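Continuing the series of single-chain predictions for the mutant panel. This is the parent chain; the variants come on the following pages.
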Amino acid sequence: MAAPEPPRDYCPTCGVAYEPLQEYCLECGTRLPTNRGVVGFLATEWQRRVPWYPGDWIWPVLFFLVLTVVSTAAAVAAVSSGKDTASTIAATTPLVTVGPGATVAPVPTVTQTRTLRTAPAPTITTGTLPRAPGAPSTNSITTTAPNPNALAVWPEGKSGFTNVLESLPLAAGQAGAAARARAAKRAGLPAVGVLVSSQYSSLHPGYYVVFSGIYGTQSEASAAVSSAHAHGFPDAYQTRVTR
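Parent structure:
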């Protein structure tokens, strides 16, 4: 049996599945949300509100700018809260005798006292650490329901067998091939998708190939051809798919 397909991402506009790192949807041309994590979330929110987006470099720059401002403010607050050094001059009264029975004015003794600044007490934060916007909770697992309108995508780097339902010239456009694939999917055929034949050495180049099924052996593909014939694709045939 063929290995199960990994989870796929789908176009938010038309529902067609797309490859990792693909920037635009091949069917409707929508720019795909390929960014992930905190930077990806911030970039998406920026682009929803402002047409011009400078690039992902803006977030580390803003982070270090805010960090610098906060550190400077903390340093100024620490200096202003420290106590100033205080010096005290006190005169003592002992007399100094010079010669027999003679006295002179008392000599002042300078006593300097210094009050050391006390370091600010460290701030210790307790409780749950904040999470980044959009990040899943560590105590829960978020699952995403599969898109029922999404078409199958041939696994990257996999060679196998499938049933070719129809082949349409590239000049006819991908929209027509996607429409035929959705019709086959609604008819109940399994794992229906669209291949660009030029990307596979075993297929004749220059066509959008509407396929059904991802099989590991030729016998499995042959056994499913009759089902394709019965569901409105009388010209369906099995073939090998090789990168």
